[in-house]
Amino acid sequence: MNKELTILLAEDDEGHATLIKRNLKRSGLLNKIIHFKDGQETLDFLNQAKKKEEYKDSIPSLLLLDIKMPKVDGIEVLRQVKQDPKLKKMPVIMITTTDDPREIDNCHELGCSNYIAKPIDYDKFVDAIRQLGLFLLIVELPEIKD
């Protein structure tokens, strides 16, 4: 994985966000993680990033996206990202407590790269995030260009 890749984390639950960041780092992932507390913050950041010179050719990001968030939910963030020509190749991994098969199908139809249901059990949640971190260490992500 490109070590310069920035991980964007859209998660309104501060406790979940802290657990995710801590356990990605414990798995060996040293990438910069930028945390957003709602979908609107996430979209605002991405829209600003597209205008900046350093992102002219690519937006080096992976988005970890919660579904149930204030202002703009994760489904709408996913929809907007995948409809945007500059952002559509950005990998988006849904991380949510919802394991409804219809919602999972909807996210995949909209273009999410993967869908992880947050286990309610603390230890299982920690383990799932560490496994995600290990996966991200080895996966090759697409270069995102115009």
Can you walk through the features of this model?
This protein has helices spanning about 15-25, 40-50, 75-85, 100-110, 120-140; strands at about 5-10, 35, 60-65, 90-95, 115. The protein is of the alpha/beta class and about 150 residues long. It has one domain: 3-Layer(aba) Sandwich (Rossmann fold), CATH 3.40.50. Strands 2-1-3-4-5 form a 5-stranded parallel β-sheet. Helix 1 links the parallel strand 1 (about 5-10) and strand 2 (about 35). The longest helix is centred in the C-terminal third of the chain and has 17 residues, at about 120-140. The chain is globular. Keywords: Phosphoprotein.
Q: Which descriptors would you attach to this protein?
A:
146 residues; alpha/beta; Rossmann fold; 5-stranded parallel beta sheet; 5 helices; 16% strand; globular; phosphoprotein; Response regulator; TCS_response_regulator; Sig_transdc_resp-reg_receiver
Uncertain stretches of 5 or more adjacent residues = none
CATH superfamily: Response regulator
At the third CATH level, what is the topology name?
Rossmann fold
Q: Which structural class best describes the helix and strand composition?
A: alpha/beta
Rg estimate, integer Å: 14 Å
Mean pLDDT: 83
Order of helices and strands: EHEHEHEHEH
Domain Response regulatory: 6-133
Organism: Draconibacterium halophilum
Modified residues (4-aspartylphosphate): 66
Pfam family, one: Response_reg
